[in-house]
Amino acid sequence: MDTISITDGIPQNPNEERFKKLVKKFKINYNGIQPQFLCRAPGRVNLIGEHIDYCGYSVLPMAIDQDIVSVFATCDNNEVQINNTDESFKAGSFNMENFSISYEKSDWYEYFKCGIQGIRDKFPDIKLKGIKKDRDEENFLS
Fold it and tell me: What structural domains does the chain harbor?
């Protein structure tokens, strides 16, 4: 009798093809550079209550299928380059040592600048490297 695995025909990681496409796009965007990190952040919903957690009440957060996946590589200069697989979001770049956060502009990568600034504020003695980053959103609603 043949043994049949319960995973036969089922991808081990349902995102595997998507990850491969993102890595391929990264290599195209950055002249063949291999990404060093892949990060997936699932979306989240609160099943019980919206905005009550900071009032001291319980919520029931739950991960959902919608997510954001990013691939990164560090570089030796101070340049941060960011791309999004959704071409309606333009690419962005800025210098890690000398940037400002625009509250008037609505470019999506301004949020990334806020994260970098938060790291700089919390860890002022750490020397940050430049970053090359591609981002993919799967069925993400805003």
Answer: 19-41+68-138 (3.30.230.10)
In the block, tokens 């739950």 appear at 62
Q: Phi and psi of 81, rounded to 5°?
A: -120, 130
Quick one: pLDDT at residue 141? 38
List phi, psi (to 5°) of 74.
-85, 160
pLDDT band with cut points at 50, 70 and 90 for residue 121: very high
- C-alpha–C-alpha distance, residues 83 and 92, integer Å: 7
pLDDT of residue 76: 86
Q: Which residue has the tokens 């030796």?
A: 76
> Strand pairing partners for 37?
72
Give dist(CA 20, CA 22) in Å, integer.
5
Give the number of C-alpha atoms closer than 13 A to the C-alpha of residue 23, restricted to the C-beta side.
Answer: 12
